[in-house]
Structures are given as C-alpha cells and as structure tokens.
Amino acid sequence: MPDCHLMGPFVRRFLLEELVADRNLTLNTQKSYRDGIRLLFDFVAERHSTDPTRVTVEDIDAAVVRSFLVHLEEDRGNSIATRNQRLAVLHSLFRFIGRSVPELIDQAAQIQAIPLRRTATPIMPYLDKHEMDALLTVPDRRRAQGRRDYALLLFLYNTGARATEAAELTIADLSLGTSPSARLRSKGRKIRTCPLWARTIKVLRDLLSARLNGPRDAPVFLNVRGQPITRYGVHALVVRIVGKAAEDAPSLRDKRISPHTIRHTTAVHLLRAGVDINTIRAWLGHVSLETTNRYAEVDLEMKAQALETCAVRGPDPTPSPGWHADTELLSILASL
Fold it and tell me: Which runs of consecutive H residues, i.e. helices, occur in the chain?
C-alpha cells in the first residue's frame, strides 16, 4: 500500500464520476468545481515547489486548506461568499476521497470540519421605474445592434431571466401566438415558463422576423458577429447600457448594476403591481418561498420609510408649506 496518494486520480474520478455520472450536475456547476480545485492545485504546487501532477492528498491537510482560504481573500481579493463557495467544493471533494479510501477519512474529516464564514446579507439592489425606463431608452432601435440590445433588456425585465437563461434561449423556447410565453432553463436543469407582455412579443417578432422560419434550435440573441451571445456578453451589454443611461439618470451612478439587478427589479415591480408572492416565486423560478419573501421585506421597508416621510408632525392639522408634497407622497404610497 503506498504511503502517499496522488491527488490526480481522485480529482479525475470526482469530476467525471461523482459530478457527472452520479450527481448529473449542470455544466456550469461542473466548471465551478473544476476551477476551485485548479486554484487549490496552483496554490499547493507553488507552496511546495512541485509539479501539480505530483501533488498528493497528504500534501493537502487542514492547515494548507486554511492557508489557501486566506490566500483567496488577501491575495486574490475574493469575497467571503466566494471563499465559502471554494471551501464547499473542497468539502465535497474530500468527502468523496474519504469514502474512497478509509485510511484518509480522518484527514478528510478535518478538512470538512473547517466552517464556512458568516457573511452579512447584502442589500438587494433593484431599479426604480424611471431608472429602468432610462435603460430602455438608450438603445438606438434604428440600428440592428440597438434593436438587439432593446429586445434583450426588455426580455430580462419582462421575465426576470438570469444572464445564462437569456443567453441559452432558443427560438423553439418562444411561444409568440396564443398564450405567449418563454420557456427558460433555470439552475439545476429546472424549466419554468414565463408569460410575455404584448410589448415584448412585438419586439421579439421584429428581432426574429428573418429567422422565425429557420432552425428552431437557433439562439434568440446573437452578438455583433452573429454568434450566440454568452452570459458574459449579456453582462457586458447591461454595463455598457447603464453607463450611457447614467448621463440622464444620475442615480444610476451610485448603483452597481448587472443582469441580476434587473431580475430583482422585475420581482419588486411585480410585487408593487399586486402580483402575489407565490406567482412571483414561480415567475423567477425560486425553489424556496423564503427566497422570494426577501422582495416583500424590501417593499415593506420602502413603504415604512414613505410613511415616516409622510407623517404629519405635531397636533396642529393646519396645512403647512410641505402639505402638498406630503399629500403627493401619500397618493404614491397608496398606489404601491
């Protein structure tokens, strides 16, 4: 029996057997696991001045993993959330190694005992109606790229789609006739169907007018080279549009906006329109209602702030110079 166990065979079996054959994880999840393990190999190989192919399980004990986590935060500038995600990958890898070789169970248990760090719940970013409208006015719809940009932004806003879901949307996923809808492939291979607004249907029909009779598996959104857009391309498009929209909507300059911000915006605006929380959960493809309830909390906080702003101070009900402004705020509040 060898004194040391090379990591390579374990990693290969973990990525191909555990993640693909046994757990059937999505390609994006597989890549995330792979990248986390690659970063660990790079760190250990540099630390021990050895070739990555010679790294052994025994080289990676709990102390090394803790040093690796410090390296992620201090040297690479990763957030606590990213640090926790990398650690979760290693927990899973060493759980697999411990099951495969009983002699390594103790070492695996020590690594699995390293806890995830607590992180503060981030403030959920979203756009007000005028900010979303500012984004939609940026694309020049007289040009092909502008029509594509406008259609993609409107689709994200209509469906609350993630960047990957929009990038993977095919013509076959669209139903633009009676009961218009879009079929989206969510995380974990879940599929959900979102209704489409009349405005979105018209824009998509115009965008696809020359391709509706073509291959049904063709992507809806293409990049400037006519190739399928990627989730990174969707992100870059949103960032570019926000930069231009901020010239007319200065409040956008103080917000860090991504495609996921538009997803949050969809949820908050649906809630304010009176859509019930269960429908919003299905609309966004949340597994747990608890996730969707975060939007209700955000909206309740805003209503409480508005009430505080609108409160008439003092016992004297005589109208004051600020009375008309308060009345206006109350009418806005009543419409929320």
Answer: 7-13, 27-48, 62-74, 80-100, 105-112, 129-136, 144-159, 163-167, 198-207, 231-245, 259-272, 277-284, 289-310, 323-335
**Joined tokens for residue 112:** 């699995």
Domain spans of the chain, in order of start = 7-112, 129-287, 307-335
Strands 174-175 and 181-185: antiparallel
- 82 burial via Cβ count (<10 Å: 0-12, 13-18, 19+): middle
Check residue 326 and give its pLDDT.
36
Q: Does domain 129-287 have CATH number 1.10.443.10?
A: yes
Label residue 322 by pLDDT band (50, 70, 90): very low
Residues with a catalytic annotation lie at 162, 187, 260, 263, 286, 295
What 8-11 contacts at long range (C-beta under 8 Å, 24+ apart), as own/partner pairs, is: 8/53, 8/55, 10/57, 10/93, 10/96, 10/97, 10/100, 11/37, 11/93
- d(C-alpha 52, C-alpha 4), whole Å: 15
**Cα distance between residue 55 and residue 25, in whole Å:** 26
7-112: what fold? DNA polymerase; domain 1 (1.10.150)
Given a contact cutoff of 8 angstroms between Cβ atoms, the answer to whether 165 and 234 are in contact is no
Query: Please, are residues 271 and 280 in contact by the beta-carbon 8 Å criterion?
Result: yes
- 254 to 68, 125, 238, 249, 250: CA distances (angstroms): 34, 11, 15, 10, 8
For 232-253, what is each residue's pLDDT tens digit? Answer: 999 999 999 999 999 999 999 9
